[in-house]
Amino acid sequence: MLGIERGGRLTRAVLRAPTPRIDVAMVRTGAAGLEVAGRHGLLAPRLLGFEVLDGVPVTLESLVEGASSWAVASPVQLRAAGAVLARVHAVSIEASDDLPFRPRPIAVDDFAADRRTGKMATTDLLQAADEVVRANGIPAGDHVFLHGDVWPGNLVWSGDEVAALIDWKTAGVGARGVDLGELRKQVAISFGAAAPAVVLDGYETATGCRAPDVEYWDAVAALNTPTELYDATATARRDDFLRVACGWL
């Protein structure tokens, strides 16, 4: 974090550059995502600067004050999280080199493919669900601006209101369900089986229409996770979410 003084006013900012986990393309994507978010007045940090220094891209973005942890998610917060995604998806843009087409959330990972090719262990449930998703194919539909990595840690809160969506390094263009399915999966894992429906209610109330292909994108999001999550409860909740998405109650 940096402090920038201009005309006697101090602005807190975040400097981002490539790291072992964040490559050059991600930094460029983060800058492009913030540029689009700023142009459309979305709830996001503001891009303060972008430079390429000796071939290395570096960005400076405003620091959004607030909390980024959900100890317990209230229905108000879950609906607000769904509604903020609706604002992002109201933006229609064309895919580009820095904001590419995204067929799944956190598209730099493809855990389903890793299982298919033997790079990662699998389970009967994950294998069967992957076969169903691949047989179905990506549903037809319009493409919109995507955040790409919507989980509770990337939402900054001011009370029960979303102050900002942060960390746009996997932003892009694709189906609405890429973001919506990821957020629904994340809250299912973090808060239990009832939480995804509340997120969906917030999203659909904000858009004024039903979200398309919810089950398909829920399954895609669940499949793009490691076979074993960080603890047994999280893994079991992911599996239950996937069973519902595929109709295997």
Mean pLDDT: 93
Order of helices and strands: EEHEEHHHEEEEHHHH
Helix percent reads 40-55%
Q: Mind telling me the C-alpha Rg?
A: 18 Å
Strand percent estimate: 15-25%
The second-level CATH architecture of the largest domain is Alpha-Beta Complex
CATH-derived topology of the largest domain = Aminoglycoside 3'-phosphotransferase, Chain: A, domain 2
* Continuous helix count: 8
CATH homologous superfamily placement of the largest domain? Aminoglycoside phosphotransferase (APH), C-terminal lobe
CATH class bucket of the largest domain: Alpha Beta
Task: Provide the fold topology.
Layout: E1 2-6, E2 9-16, H1 24-39, E3 47-53, E4 56-62, H2 75-89, H3 111-116, H4 124-136, E5 144-146, E6 155-158, E7 161-165, E8 172-174, H5 176-191, H6 195-207, H7 214-223, H8 232-245
Antiparallel strand pairs: 1-2, 2-4, 3-4, 5-8, 6-7
Quickly list its features.
single chain; 249 residues; alpha+beta; Aminoglycoside 3'-phosphotransferase, Chain: A, domain 2; 2 domains; four-stranded antiparallel β-sheet; two-stranded antiparallel ribbon; 8 helices; 17% strand; globular
